[in-house]
Amino acid sequence: EVKDQLKIFNTGTYFTSSEGRIDSNIIWHAGNDGPESGLDADLLDGKHSTDFATSTHDHNSTYLGINSTAVDSDKLDGYDGIYYLIWDHFTNTPTTLSGYGITDAALKSDLDSHTSATISVHGIANTSDLALKSGSINQFADITSSGTDIDDAVLKRHIQNTDVGTSSMTFYIGLNGPKIKNNSGTIEVRNNIDSDYANLIVNNLIVKGTTTTTTSETVLFDDNILILNNNYSGSSPTINSGIEVERGSLTNASLIWDESNDLWKAGLVNSEKTIVLEDNTITLTGGVSGSGVFNSVGNVSISVQVLDDSHNHIISNIDGLLASLDSKSDITHNHDSNYLGITATAVNSDKLNNYEGTYYLDWSNFTNTPTTLSGYGITDATSITAFNEMVQRFENLEAIVETIGGILI
User: 396 in helix, strand or coil?
Assistant: First the structure.
């Protein structure tokens, strides 16, 4: 009797409490066969029974039936071709002109509504289809509207080239189009329901007056140059021109052309500073000389020359100089302890730092020597820790062998 597993040594043949294998192959039994077990004893050529058709199946819906005759071979679903040309056999046919895609016919509903509205002149129910075409309209006085109303309509007839205006405060353009509105003497172009302003597109626009206010958030110009002070035509301008930026409670900012100095300035209003331009120059004075001219991209390069004896400073006035000098040695210092002295004899010329060569071969004079194998780069030895672990494993193995009586399981 063994515990957990009985195995033939160094093979894939073993038995456990739940399975057995011979040369690593599964041993089949009543407990591990069946569907999806991997055992193919119930398969035919490796295929399950569900992969095959039943003996009662047919292909009637796909092929000509086995009892059909040659005369049926030109039929479709058992019907001759003439069957498919009879209108009564069609299904889901449209019932409207649009359903058939017909566009060159009038709707019956439109014709019926027009006919019912104009059946006769006398007693007509809808007078909106009636056109008043002449001043002798009194012959229609017996219509549902009174003769007075019709006479009034005639008086309001439009005669071309005689209009002088309208007394209405608004005037529509088109049935659903915008309206022109008189708002206390100001002409407004409003939308059809007068809830907002309408769009206006014109060709050239000239605005008279002294103030033009634009409340839109975005203003776009196709023109690449905007001309300010356009109404001036003389040769001695005195009024500055430019752009001013509103900054609320803070002082506004501006970019202006200063006419009195003929140059550009920018900054806060009334405190603008001159903008440096190309060809403006910088000249250095005092104890140095040099000058430079601004180029087209606003840069300037200056070559500076310090005049002789024009600058005198004590050491403490030069940042960092005193500290730098303090780290230097005076001219009387020497290196006798590190180098062969200038007065040394030949007997000293083979020493290094005043030591003979044997000094450097004495192991006790070495410092910072390693204390491990890896410190010396030794790779063909094992550490004492690894050696002790291996000894302990052999001792454990020996105890196991003694316990099982030398039997390998």
Answer: helix
Among 407, 224, 116, residue whose Cα is nearest residue 108: 116
Other CB atoms closer than 10 Å to residue 179's CB: what's the count? 19
**Contact indicator for 296, 290 with CB cutoff of 8 Å:** no
Q: Quick one: residue 165, left, alpha or beta (phi over 0 = left, psi -120 to 50 = alpha)? A: left
Between residues 157 and 396, the one the model is more confident about = 396
Q: Could you report the per-residue pLDDT of 309-321, keeping only the tens digit for each?
A: 666 778 888 888 8
Edge to edge, what strands does the sheet with 170-172 contain?
170-172, 179-183, 186-190
CB atoms within 10 A of CB 382: 10
Q: Which tokens in the block code for residue 216?
A: 């839109």
Is residue 359 scored above 70 in pLDDT?
Answer: yes
According to DSSP, the residues that pair with 25 across neighbouring strands are 22
Per-residue model confidence as pLDDT tens digits over 10-26: 677 766 767 777 777 77
Contact between 235 and 247 under an 8 Å Cβ cutoff? The reply is no
Q: Which residue has the tokens 């890896």?
A: 374
